[in-house]
């Protein structure tokens, strides 16, 4: 599959299916849905891009994708250019996911946690997102996700 247009009935909001290809990714065989919403100022301004979170699709567990599906990537901000389009956004998301080779527990670099605080906080983070590799993807450092409590 790779990248597939799921719906473009509305000219302002398109849905794409994304499957990460390759044998060495933690997302092998997983399918995700990406929503691209075009604003009035597109292509001058970047579109709103989110991974769909519903009964059928879940956002990928990745340090630059929030649990609600919002994506943190430089092309969806200061690196946006009017020559970019929905295809380039999908390819960037697919490449970002393909670069993850393993998942590991992650606690962000913030003030040290007490043993009690750290015990309940877990989050998976792709090892590939550690600097300087993430810099090569153009992903800003400020988008590290805060740990979430797992009950």
Automatic annotation (TrEMBL):
CDD domains to which the protein is assigned, alphabetical: UBCc_UBE2W
**Domain UBC core stretches:** 1-138
**Keywords assigned:** Ubl conjugation pathway
Transmembrane stretches, start-end: none
Query: Does the keyword Chaperone feature in the UniProt annotation?
Result: no
| Record InterPro entries | Ub_conjugating_enzyme, UBC, UBQ-conjugating_enzyme/RWD
Q: Does the keyword Transferase apply?
A: no
Listed SMART domains? UBCc
Q: Which Pfam families does its entry note?
A: UQ_con (PF00179)
Q: What is this protein called?
A: UBC core domain-containing protein
Native species: Vanrija humicola (Yeast)
